[in-house]
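stage 2 :: seqdesign
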């Protein structure tokens, strides 16, 4: 029997058609590249259980067909990024009165291009043209990138079937933040948690109880001093889990390691924590909700220093303003990068339907002095929220962790970068700068370093009483 006998009006000569008798385990690239090529072009149909060129039906029994489908799915999930939009179906027929099946995979043109095939850590990009699949040209890759529709990672369909019993941790998280109410399946489906064929969207996969992949990776560290470069690392913990367990893990990590102190307010002694619970929680929620899940090999970074907490999330602000650094958190405008993930967090009552939650952080620090004000800085590949430690009297001492880019100073020294970084957020006296650098407050240092930086416009000098203060001119440097 032949394929055209069981499928009417099939276009066998079309460049959108390809078939394989079986999936070759020894040459995975040989057939995976066809899937990637269809997705990078205008889609196509891929049949398994049909002999190539002759279109003769080989077929599978029911169990073998299911195994072949599962193997196909596993290889696609492991080697193609992003996963192409596909519909997999079984086509049954009879041979010698026995039930047989071929597998039909309908691949749609990918909304996000290029689809990359990565095998043994070597990435390749393929294109389907004139009935054949081969490597994409440089011009084709550029065209794919330019024409690619800006579709969010979390709303693409995965190859994982929806099973309600595998979201117990999400249900518990919902109950905890909704006064014991039960999360209804209808609420999730109304968000688009699962498609019509019963497959989870990518964002839904990240909420699975057993999710342990790298997409949600977090690294939490504690440093003994003010920066990463010169101080002892006390703790480095790494965590992989679903989104709700990630949120709980970060909050618990910081809570266990923060300081507790007492301040006087209106002649009353008030107990305070390093970081207000509400501000910490909002910061973690924002890092998770607005993370760029396309960026493999990255992690949310949580760093506790002597004077501050930094929460960095992969990806700059999505379609928002390009920020260097700002204390005006309420003025930050950023559209949602992950509609489904944000929708689930809104339903769980841990994120507002409108706004970023930064207003709540501002409220928690409203009574703090200037040295204890939170701020955000952003690059194209990450954004960082900085929460000052309220139990540390001096406020933020050193933001040397903020790396700066600048044109080398004429007649400059190797100390220029450290000075500009130290003085970037607030002005410092000469003695403070020298102490930070670990050198003496000498005439040479003042003349060759500070005066030279001031002369060329990199430092701005001011006087308070008889003391000279230096602050970095933000127009001459750029935050990395």
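stage 2 :: out
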């Amino acid at each position: 029997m032949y394929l055209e006998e069981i499928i009417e009006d099939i276009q066998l000569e079309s460049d959108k058609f390809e078939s394989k008798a079986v999936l070759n385990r020894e040459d995975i690239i040989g057939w995976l590249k066809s899937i990637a090529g269809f997705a990078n072009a205008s889609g196509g149909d891929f049949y398994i259980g049909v002999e190539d060129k002759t279109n003769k039906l080989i077929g599978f029994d029911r169990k073998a067909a299911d195994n072949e489908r599962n193997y196909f799915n596993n290889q696609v999930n492991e080697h193609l990024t992003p996963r192409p939009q596909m519909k997999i179906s079984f086509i049954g027929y009879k041979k010698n009165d026995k039930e047989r099946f071929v597998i039909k995979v309908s691949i749609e043109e990918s909304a996000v291009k290029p689809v990359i095939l990565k095998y043994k850590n070597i990435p390749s990009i393929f294109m389907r043209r004139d009935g054949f699949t081969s490597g994409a040209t440089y011009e084709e890759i550029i065209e794919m990138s330019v024409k690619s529709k800006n579709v969010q990672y979390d709303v693409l369909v995965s190859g994982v079937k929806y099973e309600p019993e595998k979201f117990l941790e999400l249900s518990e998280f919902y109950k905890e933040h909704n006064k014991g109410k039960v999360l209804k399946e209808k609420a999730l489906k109304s968000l688009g948690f699962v498609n019509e064929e019963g497959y989870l969207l990518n964002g839904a996969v990240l909420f699975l109880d057993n999710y342990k992949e790298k997409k949600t990776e977090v690294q939490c560290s504690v440093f003994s001093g003010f920066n990463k470069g010169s101080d002892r690392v006390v703790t480095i913990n790494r965590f992989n889990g679903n989104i709700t367990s990630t949120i709980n893990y970060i909050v618990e990590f910081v809570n266990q390691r923060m300081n507790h102190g007492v301040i006087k307010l209106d002649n009353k002694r008030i107990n305070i924590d390093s970081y207000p619970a509400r501000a910490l929680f909002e910061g973690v929620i924002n890092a998770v909700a607005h993370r760029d899940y396309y960026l493999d090999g990255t992690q949310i970074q949580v760093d506790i220093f002597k004077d501050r907490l930094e929460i960095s999330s992969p990806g700059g602000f999505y379609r928002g303003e390009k920020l260097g650094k700002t204390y005006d958190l309420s003025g930050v405008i950023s559209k949602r990068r992950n509609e489904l993930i944000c929708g689930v967090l809104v339903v769980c009552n841990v994120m507002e339907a409108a706004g970023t939650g930064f207003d709540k952080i501002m409220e928690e620090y409203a009574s703090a002095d200037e040295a204890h004000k939170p701020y955000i800085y952003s690059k194209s590949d990450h954004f960082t929220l900085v929460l000052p430690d309220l139990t540390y009297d001096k406020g933020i001492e050193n933001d040397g962790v903020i790396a700066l880019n600048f044109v080398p100073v004429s007649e400059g020294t190797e100390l220029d970068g450290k000075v500009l970084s130290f003085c970037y957020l607030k002005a410092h006296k000469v003695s403070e700068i020298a102490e930070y650098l670990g050198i003496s407050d000498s005439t040479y240092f003042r003349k060759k370093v500070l005066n030279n930086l001031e002369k060329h416009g990199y430092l701005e000098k001011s006087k308070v009483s008889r003391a000279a203060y230096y602050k970095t001119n933000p127009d001459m440097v750029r935050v990395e």
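stage 3 :: structure notes
- The CA atoms of residues 400 and 422 lie 5 Å apart.
- The longest helix spans residues 62-79.
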